[in-house]
Amino acid sequence: MEGIATVFFLPVIATLGTFAMVLLIVYWVLKSGDRKRQLEHELRMAAIEKGVDIPLPPVREKNPYIWPLIWIGLGLAILIGLGIVGDEWYWGFIPLFVGAAMLIARLIFRKQKKEDGEKKELPEITTTEGGTYDAS
After folding, report:
1. CB 43 within 8 A of CB 67
2. In degrees rounded to 5, what are phi and psi of residue 127?
3. Model-level pTM?
4. What does each of the 136 residues of the chain score in pLDDT, given as a tens digit?
5. How far is CA 46 from the centre of its chain?
């Protein structure tokens, strides 16, 4: 009887536990977003009732490197985890290279954006003696 429990019930319990944990995390994230939107709505309604200008939410700059690093970490975790077990460890290269490609693309686009920003500087406008403008 001990062999059946180990072979059948342990993987089922582990799978159900993982699935339940993922569902709880998704529920918690959605619930916290709902609460945040509700608080923002209450703040806006209170400002409207008092006749005050509605405060703008602060602009929060997102880190563009979060997802590439998560993919790279996932790939490394799969490589190391399955490498220790001796199973098909090469599957870890897929998320690893996806993350590496995302990271490289974001670095290239950041460099291009910086170069485009330098090129789009407005030319200096000067006035000549005749009253014409020189934009050279």
Report:
1. no
2. -100, 135
3. 0.47
4. 566 767 777 778 888 888 999 999 999 999 988 998 898 889 888 888 988 887 677 777 888 889 999 999 999 999 998 888 888 888 889 999 999 999 999 999 888 877 777 666 555 656 566 555 555 5
5. 32
Q: Which helix (H) or strand (E) holds 52?
A: none
Secondary structure letter of residue 57 according to DSSP: P
CA 44/CA 118 separation, integer angstroms: 39
Q: What is the largest CA-CA distance in the chain?
A: 103
- Cβ(96)–Cβ(80) below 8 Å: no
Residue 56: what are its φ and ψ, rounded to 5°? -80, 140
C-alpha 27/C-alpha 34 separation (Å) is 11
How many Å apart are CA 50 and CA 11, to the nearest integer?
59
Give the DSSP H/E element, type plus range, for residue 55: none
Which of 76, 69, 67 minimizes the C-alpha distance to 94? 76
Tokens of 114: 């910086």
